[in-house]
Structure prediction request, 408 residues.
Amino acid sequence: MANPFRDLFMGTNARTLVEALVPRRTFADVVLPPETRRSLEHALAQIRNHDLIFRRWGLGERHDAGLGLAFNFAGPPGTGKTICAEAIAHALGRRLLVVRYAELESQWAGATGKNVSAVFRSAAEQEAVLFFDEADAIAARRSVTMDGGYQREANLVVNVLLRELDEFPGVVVFATNLAANFDPAFERRIRNHILFAMPGAEERERIWRVQLHGEKTPLGEDVDFRALAELYPASGGDIKNAVLKAAQMAASEPVPDDQKRIRQHHFDEGMRQVQSARSVMGQSLFGDAAAADPWAALAGGAGSVADEVRDEMSALAARVVEVEDALAALPERLGRVEGTLGVLPDRVGRLEASQAEASAALVGRAAELEAATRAAVEAGRGREGLALGLAAAALLAAVAALAAALLV
Ligand SMILES: Nc1ncnc2c1ncn2[C@@H]1O[C@H](COP(=O)(O)OP(=O)(O)O)[C@@H](O)[C@H]1O
Ligand SMILES: [Mg+2]
Prediction:
């Protein structure tokens, strides 16, 4: 009730956008291609060393920049990124703070920067592993199109997020489907990319098994996981959904419960349904070629014109962000210039006063000279009078020049 983060954690539709969970799933629940598993083990070792160095050895108290560790789990949907984030938190004995970024961003439009900061604060307080799921919008290159307000907003949020990331002392995991097209700023801060490849037949066979209960799930004698694995080049997520559909079908058979079995045709039908649902949606994030080898997409392909254009767009986008930053800084600089202008009248006033003083003194001196000239002329000393007259004229010219300077 008295949880200040309550509003933060709930969307307007009451679906949880940020959720702190005690992780249950472990690396035993996930079947990964050997390379992905190696990368994850390496990541875990890095996190443990980091913990040792910065917390137990106290170096975190002496150095306050770059304390956190950030990872990007990149790969097609359903390849186990979410489970692995959970397994990492489990291995560390910490909570997992899951942020469903895509929804969060749209629901918090207008105030998202602040909310992103609150999420980081909450994770730091709970010492939770922070997990940005569906984080493509963070990782993707910032758009150059300046006409949409939403686009600007998103850029702003990404800027806030990248800044928070610099200061966050803990572990952050991003999950992204868009393997290519990373924002250079995101790349700079997240150097640890772990690739979640589609499982091979070997892994798929084990995934089919891991989705069932070892003892309790009743299976028909005809079930052949090897055949299923070879027939369907599906992701772990697809296999999970197919298993659930198959179980539904088997449970609906009109026979007594103790005679119900999940049979091969249930699994086949389940997988066919999953596949047709996918083709209806037709929204694989990778092209067909890339689906077979998603990492080719990551490597950037063969330097096509499209790539070049994209690179240029990206450079432009970075430039636009710089210009935006400069524009944001302008009001402050204008303020400083105004301050300088503010003191100017005072200084001009002081200058005027001293010039007036100088003029008065000169006029006084000219009057004296004039008097002396007159006296000299009256006394019949012509030459002396002439010289004095010239001096008086020069002095008056100087006064005139001073007055002119004042007018400028
Ligand atoms: N490599 C895997 N091993 C075992 N199960 C998997 C694997 N990948 C996906 N699954 C199953 O699919 C579900 C969805 O996977 P998830 O981790 O959410 O994928 P992602 O986050 O990559 O989209 C998981 O809960 C799990 O049941
Ligand atoms: Mg996921």
Notes: The pocket of magnesium ion (ligand 2) is lined by residues 81-82, 133, 175 (CB under 6 Å). The chain has three domains: 6-197, 201-295, 346-407. The chain is about 65% helix and 5% strand. The first strand starts at residue 18 and ends at 21.
